[in-house]
Design the sequence.
């Protein structure tokens, strides 16, 4: 039995075990995937322990993705992004980042052309870094806006974009073809709106990386008759890419998507 897992802190709400265990069953692999609570301080010993125990692979989530760079040799993409979300244990321990690829695949699946599009990326944390770097490589024209404008400028200078503070948010939204929310705003019921709903136009696409609930941003997007994409398919595709790195097999994307949507539905019913 090969063991896989996700390390993070907190980790109990992770949907990755449901997604990957469904994929392993569909592929007839004798494998299991669990969630492990691991602090930044314990990350090194946890990774070494997983290696010693013959783990097949790992995902890393908040707050470990950047810290992992101090421990694991990253591939070029993870190094450029500055974060690792996937670890393999073949001959050596190696780090990858599949978040940006997941985001691009989610957009493309919805028929959205990234090349030459004007993209407004809201956020400058780990998810924004991965998405910004990957979209810049695909030829998007990117503006970055973040609550902390200094972080927006830092990320912008790394990927050849322009960085702004929230004062500019609404005027930047109006100019964009694709608006991406890569902040954690919208994860919780009652979170404030990032911007007023009336700035959106029907020709725009709004991609919200939040996947645990239907956000106000996506509701506003639908009300504006614009194209709305939630974070579920990014989660599925980043997981599919990780599974392909670990096993060399083609990931059963539909099975993985169903597992996530079923888990989200079950959580919603439990919370009623
Ligand atoms: P992170 O590194 O902690 O970054 C958080 C970002 O959100 C920062 O830009 C932060 O701005 C901003 N932010 C937080 N609270 C805010 C507020 N009240 N108002 C305005 N901005 C605020 O987190 P992350 O790893 O990038 O994750 C961000 C989101 O992406 C989370 O919801 C996560 O679940 C989601 N995500 C989804 C996927 C997927 O597959 N769908 C993958 C990865 C992450 P400051 O810099 O100003 O603090």
Sequence:
């Amino acid at each position: 039995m090969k063991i896989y897992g996700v390390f993070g802190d907190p980790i109990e709400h992770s949907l990755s075990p449901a997604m990957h265990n469904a994929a392993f069953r569909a592929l007839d692999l004798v494998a299991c995937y669990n969630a492990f609570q691991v602090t930044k301080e314990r990350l090194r010993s946890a990774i070494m322990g997983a290696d010693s125990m013959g783990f097949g692979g790992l995902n890393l989530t908040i707050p470990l993705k950047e810290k992992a760079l101090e421990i694991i040799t990253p591939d070029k993409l993870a190094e450029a992004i500055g974060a690792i979300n996937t670890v393999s244990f073949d001959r050596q321990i190696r780090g990858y980042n599949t978040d940006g690829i997941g985001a691009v695949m989610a957009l493309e699946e919805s028929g959205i052309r990234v090349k030459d599009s004007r993209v407004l990326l809201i956020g400058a944390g780990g998810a924004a870094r991965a998405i910004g770097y990957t979209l810049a490589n695909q030829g998007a024209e990117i503006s970055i806006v973040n609550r902390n404008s200094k972080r927006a400028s830092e990320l912008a200078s790394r990927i050849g974009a322009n960085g702004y503070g929230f004062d500019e948010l609404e005027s930047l939204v109006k100019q964009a073809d694709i608006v991406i929310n890569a902040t954690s705003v919208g994860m919780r019921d009652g979170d404030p709106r990032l911007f007023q709903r009336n700035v959106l136009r029907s020709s725009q696409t709004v991609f919200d990386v939040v996947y645990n609930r239907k956000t106000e941003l996506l509701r506003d997007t639908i009300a504006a008759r614009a194209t709305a994409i939630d974070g579920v398919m990014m989660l599925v595709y980043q997981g599919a890419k990780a599974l392909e790195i670990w096993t060399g097999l083609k990931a059963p994307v539909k099975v993985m998507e169903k597992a996530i949507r079923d888990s989200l539905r079950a959580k919603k019913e439990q919370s009623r």
